[in-house]
Amino acid sequence: MTQAESEISAGTFEEAQRRSRALRADFLVNPSKYRVLTGDRPTGALHIGHYFGSLKNRVELQSLGVETFIVIADYQVLTDRESVSAIPENVNDLVLDYLSVGLDPSRGRTHIFCHSHVPALNQLLVPFLTLVGMGELDRNPTVKEEIEAAGLTNVNASMYTYPVHQAADILFCKGNIVPVGRDQLPHLELTRKIARRFNQRYAAAAPVFPEPDALLSAAPKILGLDGTQKMSKSRANAIFLRATADETASLVKKAKTDSERNITYDPAARPEVANLLFLISLCTGEEPSAIAARIGDGGSGTLKKAVTDALNDTLAPIRARRTELSSDVQGVVRSTLRAGIAEANRVGDATLAEMRRAMNMDYSL
Ligand code: TRP
Predict the structure, then answer these.
(1) Which of 6, 65, 332, 351 is deepest in the core (most CB within 10 A)?
(2) Under a CB-based contact definition with an 8 Å cutoff, are residues 103 and 110 in contact?
(3) What is Dmax (Cα atoms) for the chain?
(4) Rounded to the nearest whole angstrom, what is the distance from the C-alpha of residue 163 to the centroid of ligand 1?
(5) From CA 312, how far away is CA 190, in angstroms rounded?
(6) Which atom of ligand 1 has the smallest separation from the CA of 180?
(7) Which of 55, 166, 234 to mutate to test the pocket of ligand 1 (most atoms within 8 A of CB)?
(8) Which atom of ligand 1 sits closest to the CA of residue 175?
(9) Using an 8 Å Cβ cutoff, are 39 and 71 in contact?
């Protein structure tokens, strides 16, 4: 657990888990009650940790017919870096990763957009900032940890206010479900407070904003191929969705294991081996201990071969879709964003008009 995660009380986490289970059951019955808002910062290509932790969930929600807005949080990149040179390529990679895993805007219920291109969304930020206290922003454990992790000595104000911006990302389209990891729970709690405070202050008779629920991923956190740290681009321990079958094989070959030949599933004593078994399990659905029993004396060579095969089988359709898209990458990315941005603006303009009316700022011009 990270420092931020340990500051998020177990009670809060357990409550979010309980709520997530109830929501999953209701999606099947009432998909049209829900609007999902989810997103990523365009800071690099996505890896299998993202796939099992969140992308797969998004595709499942899509197949249930739940409307989904996916924000590419390009302004949020500015919180901890000055250079914007990598942004266009990162946006490109992100859209391609989304489409490759099966998110499909052509069905009309999945909208992929960059928040820099939705003026109304950004305008929500101005009144929202009046609904939170400096102390609340200062205490956010996830923000504190990000500042520390990035080793920032000079922290700009957007680092403290981006959770409020994130509330605007969620509420501009009245998203009521936000699939997130545990580290994002403080941001979601702030979003709920902002919605509640706005409604109480300006719209008591007819609430404008929903109080969105977190949807926690059912899959526990995936470790990188080093078996000790979270899978992450910056730690060079990740398998990217765009990796070829051969690249995947050679990355897995370098994965850390231990000196004991007999393969057993023992996460506490043998975290590296357990993580590889867990990866296979995510791909095949088989229990990690059953996989271990099958491999047994085959040792880490057999284990790694099984990991490679399982990953390559899972990634094969994703790779095939990416190949299909590769004939006109620029065209596909542009038309995806154009459609998503148009829909986000349509929805955002309506919300902004409603918000202004609630705040007595509708001058009938
Ligand atoms: N802050 C999120 C992250 O770092 C990305 C993000 C931006 C987001 N806006 C969002 C996530 C809205 C969920 C909802 O991963």
Answers:
(1) 351
(2) yes
(3) 78
(4) 9
(5) 40
(6) 13
(7) 166
(8) 14
(9) yes
pTM above 0.90, yes or no: yes
Tokens of 80: 């901890």
> In this structure, is the dihedral angle defined by the CA atoms of residues 331, 332, 335 and 341, taken in order, positive or negative?
negative
Domains plus CATH for the chain? Answer: 3-221+329-358 (3.40.50.620), 233-326 (1.10.240.10)
123-132 per-position pLDDT tens digit:
999 999 999 9
Is 191 near ligand 1, meaning CB less than 6 Å away? no
| In the predicted structure, residue 244 carries a pLDDT above the cut 70 | yes
Pocket test for ligand 1, best of 75, 98, 169 (most atoms within 8 A of CB): 169
Q: Is the CB of 76 under 6 A from ligand 1?
A: yes
> Ligand 1 centre from 18 Cα, in Å?
22
CA 73 to ligand 1: nearest atom: 7
Hey, is 349 helix, strand or coil? Answer: helix
CA 248 to chain centre: 23
The Cα 170–Cα 215 span in angstroms is 13
